[in-house]
Amino acid sequence: MDMEDDTVQVRENSAEDTEMLELPKDPAEVKASEFIKGESSKEIPVESQQPELPENVVLQSLEKEEFIIKLAVGQQSEIIKNAILDGRGENPVPLLNVSAPILAKAIEFWKRHIDAAEGEDLTEWDKAFLGDLSQEVLFELAAAANYMESKSLLDCTCKFIADIIKEMKVEEVRDYFGIECDFTEEEERKMREDNAWAFEQ
Amino acid sequence: MDWSDLPPELLTLITTFFTKNSDYIRFRAVCSPWRRAAQRRPRPGFPAQLPLLILEAARVFGPETNRRVDNIPLLWEAMDSNCRASSHGLLALHDKARHLVALFNPVTRSKIMTLPSLPQTISKIISSALPTPQRGHRFFVAAATISGAMLFWRPGYPGWVPVRETDGQICDITYHKQQLYALNTSPPLLMVWDRPTSYPTATLTLNGGGPPDQSFSTSRESKRYLVESDDELLIVNRILLQNYYYPNVRTEGFEVYKVECLLDEEAAVSKVEGLEDRALFVGDDNSYSVDTKASSCVNVKANCIYFVDFYDSQHVVKVYHLADNLIRLLVSFNKFKGVEKASQSWFAPSLC
Asked: B interface mutation test: which of A136, A151, A158 has the most B CBs within 10 A?
């Protein structure tokens, strides 16, 4: 920027001038500002450059069901956060891959995490919350957390799933999650032979 | 709802919550989509595994598994050759007949590389970094022999390069912050190499903190280890009881020293009173420092040193507690059926 440019300097000056011009003329207000210590002139509100953020956000599920939540709650999902903050103010935010009951569960999780006191440990609550869910809901919730890019919910559901898997033998994992083994007998045998110790619990 | 159909990034995220090699290996054996999502090598940052004690040639004991003996099968060659636990989760198989040395990962079952022939008997062999194809020539291997000599090799060298040390014996070597350190017993010196040359980059006299008779170079019979712990370099003095002759070894106690500020020709050594959250595993081939607060650390006590004594024809794993200066028994190997003997080698396996 060319500091020699008079135009620029004028603009800077005019900013100060504007401030001075905006000193309240109402005597009552003048008295109030006398009580304000420090740089009272700078506390005059300047017109905001950004559109105002809504206090509430409306989310729309797959079935077009709508959920109203506070902005802070919804900001735990990057998709929701971006939809609101990118200025287009997309409201309601369409979450077409998430069904209503799953969205409700996600909202419940986010609400509890936003309401948490500073430094409060929610591990027990998280475990109980996820433990209550059916396997199908857990699956859908993890997939939804991935789609909605909600790190807190995603980490929580994945850790919960990892903890289940840790305790089980391979056959037990397949049984529990209803997974079919698609390895050939030869492949299976080799895997187990290479690291037999890892398969003995 | 098809659990084998979970998005790959979700599956990968699940594996980041595993802390043990065995969990990761079993995950990959459930079905092929899961196997594809979890790479053969876990992400960098996968927790370092706890050291295991090598028993006989093919079995290991882990203090964290609560006295259970595991079998990690080695190559059949390991039965005939001299096996040394090396760094980075590798075993060095030294075929005495043909003098060949191979670096091998027993968990991934892959042979990493073959080193040129080495006629001497090795007491310790370590690499500055994990030898990988990407790394090319940017690492070197140091081998200490039982006669107290040392040799280097790096890819491109036709053979091992002997190191010309001043005099005396090299009792232990370790890498620390990209440099190789060698501890000389008498006179007490610390030699440093930042690259594999015949003469060290620096030779430092060790200056203990206390009066001469309390300095770390005790006159009592002892074994000394150089251990990299967190960001520090430690010298661990293992004080042995007098009447136990090789191959017996019975420990009376330990002293731990920290090597501090390295100046031109001097290294200041100060006594360490407590290891805080760390635990040390000292032994023949490798010594380890473990963070007991890490998620992968189970059943390992903080501020302790794990080691193996051998007397009365049995191997005994014991734990020295710095807090009260006492040694407690962990397990002795005659209790296990079929475990004829142990070694004094700790080995931390790695999937990488």
From this structure: A158
DSSP letter string, B244-256: --TT-B-EEEEEE
Residues of A with CB below 8 A from B26's CB? Answer: 165, 169-170, 173, 198-199
ipTM: 0.71
Helices (H), B132-195: none
- CA-to-CA dists, residue A109 to A74, A80, A106, A118, A126, angstroms: 11, 15, 5, 17, 8
d(CA B52, CA B54): 6
Chain centre distance of CA B195: 21
B290-337: per-residue pLDDT in tens?
A: 999 887 787 888 999 999 998 888 888 899 999 999 999 888 776 555
**Total-model pTM:** 0.76
Tens digit of each residue's pLDDT (9 = 90 or more) over B6-25: 999 999 999 989 988 889 99
CB A162 to CB B29 under 8 A? Answer: no
What is the rounded distance in angstroms from the CA atom of residue B75 to the CA atom of residue B91? 11
Establish, for the pair of chains A and B, how many residue pairs have beta carbons separated by less than 8 Å: 90
Which helix (DSSP H) or strand (DSSP E) does residue A147 occupy? Answer: helix A135-147
